[in-house]
Specification:
The structure holds two protein chains of two kinds. Chain A is an all-alpha fold. Chain A has helices spanning 2-12, 15-44, 63-69, 72-104, 110-122, 125-136, 142-150, 162-190, 194-202, 207-235, 239-244, 256-266, 270-302; strands at 47-48, 58-59. Classes of the chains: A mainly alpha, B alpha/beta.
């Protein structure tokens, strides 16, 4: 018995197996909570199935994909998502860069201010959405009160038009995630060797020249990384939009994330929502590949 | 001595063990009923009143735990719980429209065999108001398959500010301008039609600082307001009433597969009805422009004194008379909502049925089913129903609503009871949420000025026709 158990222990503790054994729990968890559900949902996208009925799934090849891709609403929601991604990520890049430039220099109360600027990023999406919902509220929201008191004398209802609602979502998302971009860029800025700036000073280079030849090349790769991260995250945007505008007015702010949610959990068109999810995944993979391709091209040009 | 002490100790221990054992037998059996419920006054009252008044009997202790869920997400949360298979709830307060979806999914229990075997339950069914019984309990709609009991029956009531509508100076000014009376009493409101609301809203819309009822306004003031929210059913319920009052209709589930959506939903009558709804909305508080004029937002505006009147569910009445929550608790009157004048001079008052039944789920044990029926009988008993009505609730039991003194139990009761025969219900089929969500989105586009009534109803009719044909409900 002892020999058996010691045999098993020595087999178990064999240095050759130690590595695989150590990572096995993580792999099992990953399989159970990620890979298997992913494969399951991928399989379901080829069936006709509604999770709220007792009917069994019926194999239907690409029916769900065809159904989803031939409906106008997915193209509309993809367009809406693209507008929000372009607007929000663009705003985050500009503001994040400017804030990073500001915080790269030393000034009084810098650390305290930095703490305040970083705070939005640490809030939950739901908290941010509720905050902005109250901020935009026409009756007592700060924005409406300000416009009413100082500009028009009328209540201001930002979220009443498609353009206004899109701006509302973009501003809220940018407000939350600009600090993230700032942090990444700041990391690049502080890594720029001081002697380059000193040499530039000696050469009497203009501010713009210093920026384009020294500062920007150092932060470019981090900026691109920020674009990638924020684009992937914003393509999936759901909670902010769902709480702030509920996809409205009408369907003006219905992003692909909101549409997938409605299809899956309100309409219970389970197969269609799975197909939409994989179309979204495909879009994100294409975007990521494009990014990697651009990076590779740049690197090969630089070499 | 020692033996005596030993015997005494043994007897003492035995008696303790016995008494503990007996008491355990008596009170050990506890059956807990967990019920999903929307978070609002009628369900909160049920929990509080159960805790203090439910008569425990026999050797089983019944515990009722309501899981309160906000209204906006109520359907989604319940649907997620049911379809995930977690079997968390024994009972569910269900909107009547959900019946089909969750019966077809195998989650809601058919009650016919229990009703057939129990004279008390039969008496309850016989006592229910017919329209409410059909709406709350039947699937298919108006069939004899029963699934629920009324938890909280509801319909629309007009809540209005008596300090404004009954102010003599405002009344004189209104009469001078429009040649008619500003409605003040219940009887005055009985002859008010939607067209009158244009005048009332034009008259009562005032800016901050202007005088109203002899006082300068601290905020902008608006007149009569009704639902126009994008969430859940917060515009469809009001708009369906307009269709029916105008003589139009929605897709009729009780006439499938012959009933059509195209030609009915987008009929000229419905277009005229929706146009009237939208025109009136333009005279109301601007919150609807965000798609946010839901029932709670409207209630908040009324409680804050920012609108002169609201058409809202009776279920939201209790906070109106609560001095801790309401600035208008002692200056509110109650009437039926306005209607639409017919060619014969009568006023049509059709409205969409509100309120909810509660249902039993299919995985309940026999003990839980027994406990659930005890709760149902207790809730629908005369004394409990009267207590619920006094606390701001409602009843649809004929023996209660037509009893002497019922109208005096709550200030809105007269309006509620008078409206009961004017209720119709929306679809109960499993596809209802898809129909509802698309309709809400299209209505929201119209409410926020992105498209006109005709385009809106054409889009809705086309979507409904396609979906209902796909599931063989239209042939």
């Amino acid at each position: 018995m002892n020999n058996k158990s010691s045999g098993f222990l020595s087999w178990f503790m064999d240095p050759k197996r130690r590595g695989p054994m150590l990572i096995a729990p993580a792999i099992i968890v990953l399989l159970l909570v990620n890979i298997i559900p992913l494969m399951w949902s991928f399989g379901l996208s080829f069936f006709k199935y509604r999770a709220n009925t007792l009917k069994l799934p019926k194999f239907s090849w690409f029916y769900s994909y065809e159904k989803v891709l031939t409906k106008d609403n997915i193209w509309e929601s993809l367009q809406t998502t693209a507008i929000i991604v372009a607007g929000s990520v663009g705003l985050q890049m500009i503001l994040g860069f400017l804030l990073a430039l500001l915080f790269a220099s030393q000034f009084p109360l810098r650390k305290i201010l930095l703490m305040f600027v970083l705070a939005p990023m640490m809030l939950s999406n739901v908290a941010v959405a509720i905050y902005f919902k109250l901020f935009y509220e026409p009756e007592f929201g700060l924005l409406s009160q300000f416009v009413q008191t100082y500009i028009t004398g009328e209540m201001y209802v930002l979220l009443s038009t498609p353009a206004g609602a899109l701006i509302g979502v973009i501003v809220a998302d940018a407000w939350q995630w600009t600090p993230f971009v700032m942090l990444l860029v700041l990391a690049g800025l502080v890594s720029v060797p001081k002697h380059l700036y000193e040499a530039a000073e000696i050469d009497r280079m203009s501010w713009w020249r210093k920026f384009t030849t020294i500062t920007f090349p150092y932060v470019r790769s981090l900026l691109l990384l920020a674009v990638l991260f924020r684009t992937i995250e914003t393509v999936k945007i759901f909670d902010l939009v769902f709480i702030l505008t509920n996809g409205g007015p009408g369907t003006a702010t219905e992003t692909i994330g909101v549409l997938v949610y409605r299809t899956a959990f309100q309409f219970f068109r389970t197969s269609n929502s799975a197909a939409m999810g994989y179309i979204l995944l495909f879009a994100v993979i294409v975007l990521t590949s494009l990014y990697l391709y651009v990076i590779k091209q740049r690197e090969s040009e630089e070499i | 001595m020692f033996n005596l002490t030993k015997k005494f100790l043994l007897a003492f221990l035995a008696s303790i063990v016995f008494s503990v054992g007996v008491s355990k037998t008596v009170s050990a059996k506890t059956v807990e009923i967990i019920m999903a419920a929307p978070d609002w006054p009628p369900t909160r009252f049920m929990q509080e009143y159960f805790n203090s008044n439910f008569p425990q009997s026999g050797d089983t202790e019944i515990k009722l735990t309501l899981d309160f869920i906000p209204w906006d997400n109520f359907y989604t949360n319940v649907a997620a719980s049911l379809t995930s298979g977690e079997q968390k709830y024994s009972m569910i307060v269900s909107d009547s429209q959900w019946l089909g979806a969750f019966i077809e999914g195998g989650y809601f229990q058919k009650l016919n065999k229990y009703i057939d075997a129990d004279p008390e339950l039969q008496a309850i069914f016989d006592d229910m108001h017919q329209g409410y019984k059909e709406g709350y309990t039947t699937y298919p709609y108006k069939s004899e398959n029963y699934y629920g009991f009324p938890q909280f029956p509801d319909n629309y009531v007009n809540f209005y500010r008596t300090d404004i509508f009954c102010n003599p100076e405002e009344n004189a000014a209104f009469r001078a301008k429009y040649g008619k009376k500003l409605p003040c009493t219940y009887a005055d409101w009985e002859i008010v039609v939607w067209d009158d609301i244009f005048d009332i809203n034009e008259f009562l819309t005032r800016k901050k600082g202007e005088m109203l009822a002899g006082k300068p306004l601290e905020d902008d003031m608006f007149g009569v307001t009704y639902q126009a929210g994008k969430a859940y059913d917060f515009s469809s319920m009001q708009i369906n009433g307009f269709f029916w009052q105008y003589g139009g209709d929605i897709w009729r589930e009780d006439q499938q597969p012959d009933a059509q959506a195209i030609g009915v939903v987008n009929s000229d009558i419905n277009v005229a009805a929706l146009t009237k709804y939208l025109d009136l909305l333009a005279t109301m508080h601007p919150s609807h422009k965000t798609g946010g004029m839901g029932i709670f937002e409207m209630q908040a505006l009324y409680l804050e004194g920012k609108i002169a009147s609201m058409i809202n569910w009776v279920g939201l009445g209790a906070p109106v008379v609560d001095p801790n929550l309401s600035k208008v608790h002692d200056i509110t009157g109650y009437a039926r909502q306005p209607g639409t004048m017919q060619d014969d001079g009568t006023i049509s008052r059709w409205a969409n049925l509100g309120g909810q039944p509660f249902v039993l789920t299919t995985w309940m044990t026999d003990d839980e089913i027994d406990a659930a029926f005890k709760i149902i009988k207790w809730w629908l008993s005369f004394d409990t129903q009267i207590a619920a009505v006094k606390a701001g609730g409602q009843s649809c039991m004929k023996s209660i609503i037509y009893s002497d003194g019922y109208n005096a139990l709550a200030p809105w009761n007269a309006a509620y009871v008078a409206s009961m025969d004017w209720q119709k219900d929306v679809w109960h089929i499993p596809e209802f949420f898809e129909l509802l969500t698309q309709q809400q989105e299209e209505f929201d586009k119209a409410i926020t000025g992105q498209q006109d009534a005709k385009t809106t109803l054409d889009n809705i009719a086309e979507f409904q026709q396609e979906l209902l044909e796909e599931v063989d409900r239209i042939q």
